[in-house]
User: Fold DNA-binding protein from Segatella copri.
Amino acid sequence: MAINLKAKETLIQVGELKGKYRYVLSTELYNKLPESKVIKEAALRSGVSRGVMQACWDAAGEVIKAWSTEGHSVAIPGLGTMRFGVRAKSVATVGEVAGSLITTRRVIFTPNVDIKDELQRTPIQITCIDRNGKVVKNVTSGDGGNVEDPDKDPNGGGTNGGSDNTEGGGSGNTEGGGSGNTEGGGTSGGDAGGDVGL
Assistant:
C-alpha cells in the first residue's frame, strides 16, 4: 500500500509567482467508501450482525456529536480524538474582542500513536505530470516520514491558540492541489490570528 500523489505543472494565478509554471503536489483522490461498505466490513471482522453494527455506529456518532458540541475532546475508538475549534483573528485590546474575530469553524482530529505510526511507515508515490497532461516522472518518497501534530501551531508556536499565526499564506505552495494559498502557515496575506480549541 502507498499514498499516491501527483505533481502537476500548474500556472500560478496569484502571488509573487503569478504567471509562472510550478509543479504543485496534491493527493490523488480515491473513491469515497460508503458507510454501508464500512459497516459490512466491520460486521464481518467482528462477527456481529450488520444490524447490530449499524446500531452501534449510529449511537457512537450521536455520542461524539453531542459531546463535541459541549466542548469535549472525544475519543474515537482505535483512531484518536476529535474536537471542535475555530480559526480567529487576534486583536490588541479587550474592547476589540467580538464574535466577528472568528474566521472559520473547524473539526480538529488528533490521530492516536498507532495511526501516526502507520502513516509514518506508508510509502508515498509521486506521479509528475507536465502542463500537457503527459507523465514525465515517477518518484518514491525519501522524506523523513514526519507526521504533523494538529495540536501544535503550524509555525511551531504553541498549542490551541498559544501563539499567533498567519492564516492565508504565501503563494506557490498548496494543500490539496489548488494554486496559491496555504492555510495556516504562509507569510503573506490573510489575517493574523491563531487556532482556538473549544
Q: What stands out?
A: The domain at 3-88+99-140 is CATH 4.10.520.10 (HU Protein; Chain A).
